[in-house]
Every structure is written in C-alpha cells, then in structure tokens.
Amino acid sequence: xxxPQVICAGEMLFDRLSNQPGKPLEQxxxxxxxxxxxxxxx
Length: 42
Prior knowledge:
By secondary structure, this protein is mainly β. It has one domain (9-42). The protein is 0% helix and 29% strand. The protein has no helices and two strands. Strands 1-2 form a two-stranded antiparallel ribbon. The chain is elongated, with a radius of gyration of 17 Å. The mean pLDDT is 84.
C-alpha cells in the first residue's frame, strides 16, 4: 500500500430549516437539511 498523496481535513455544516414555518421549535415535526458552510464565516 502506498502513502496517500493528498490529506484533506475540515468540516461539513448543514443548515436545518423547519418544514412548518411559524411554529414554535417544540412543535416542529420535520426539517430539511441544506449542506452549506458557516453563514457568518468572517
């Protein structure tokens, strides 16, 4: 087996948005995940 030529390190973030807008958090029954990055990556 050969040594790897590339090593990648990082993280994957997801934004989770409610499928029932306007409901309190405790009453949300389902979510949709959207892969993305840090919204405030400054």
